[in-house]
Specification:
single chain
Length: 293
């Protein structure tokens, strides 16, 4: 329109709506695009950000419902998560689980132990820092072998037995030894392989009767379990000495009995003999029968 001088003119203001921006600082979380809109227009809040090892607990200020008349930065707030490493020792000694904040340094525990087995590692590496998940780590084992050796103490040889721990053992036939009777082992042969090397030693009983001698003064006899069948007369105290040996080379147990009468073998079987430990004396004023076994 064209206006002439002195003509009334009415002016009206014209406004342009300003745009403002909301910026989201996710503080290490997933990216959220900024929102730029006209002033006072409705704002649609974005989905929450995510961050490995953390839980989103909100923004440092509320996201406005409509665009304010200024640019705004809103910052994410986070809580660090805790996670647990569990150790499955599959029969070994127990290892306590480790629960720590995400990303913190982990001190690896001492290796588990297990009877009869050697620890050869874990199925996965123990992480240097706590990961953003719960983890179970499982022990790996190798079964050990052990050996049972048989010391036959002069008897026939018996081969050693080498088996895995816990496996069934078949006992060998008994050894033999000339002049001896096998009476067993010094320890029981186990039914299954123990978690150690062991030596089991044969026990023997001399199969031969011992030989020996009874001396009364200067008189000597070499028959055991038999009474002296003729009389000897002494004017002085006499010393009785008994010796005995067998083919084992070990000491032989000797027992004796002094009586004034003769006993049968059946009666002697129930008689109370005295263990012989040293020579003993007999009086010349009494009659004695000396029994030795």
């Amino acid at each position: 329109d064209i206006y002439t001088a002195n003509e009334a003119l009415t002016l009206y203001p014209v406004w342009n709506t300003n745009k403002y921006t909301i910026t989201f600082d996710t503080a290490g979380g997933s990216k959220i695009d900024s929102i730029t809109q006209d002033y006072d227009t409705a704002i649609t809040a974005p989905a929450d950000p995510t961050r490995e090892g953390y839980t989103f607990i909100g923004w440092n200020k509320a996201i406005p419902a409509t665009m304010p008349a200024e640019n705004v930065t809103i910052t994410a707030q986070w809580k660090i998560n805790q996670y647990t490493i569990t150790f499955d020792t599959t029969g070994g000694s127990e290892i306590a689980p480790i629960t720590q904040d995400y990303g913190t340094e982990i001190t690896a525990p001492a290796n588990s132990t297990r009877e009869g087995y050697t620890f050869i590692g874990w199925d996965k590496a123990i992480p240097a820092t706590m990961p953003a998940e719960n983890v179970t780590i499982t022990a790996q084992w190798k079964i050990n072998q052990y050996t049972i050796k048989f010391d036959t103490a002069g008897g026939s040889e018996i081969a050693s037995i080498t088996h895995d721990y816990g496996t069934e053992i078949t006992a060998p036939a008994n050894p033999t030894r000339e002049g001896y009777t096998f009476v067993g082992w010094d320890k029981e042969i186990p039914a299954t392989m123990p978690a150690e090397n062991i030596t089991i030693t044969a026990q023997w009983k001399d199969a031969e009767k011992p030989t020996g001698e009874i001396s009364v003064g200067t008189s000597k006899w070499k028959t055991f379990l038999n009474n002296i069948t003729f009389g000897l007369f002494f004017n002085e105290t006499q010393t009785v000495t008994v010796t005995a040996s067998d083919n084992s080379g070990d000491d032989v147990k000797i027992e004796y009995l002094l009586l004034a009468k003769e006993l049968t073998e059946a009666e002697l079987a129930n008689a109370a003999f005295t263990v012989y430990t040293a020579p003993f004396d007999i009086d010349p004023d009494n009659e004695y029968i000396v029994y030795v076994r």
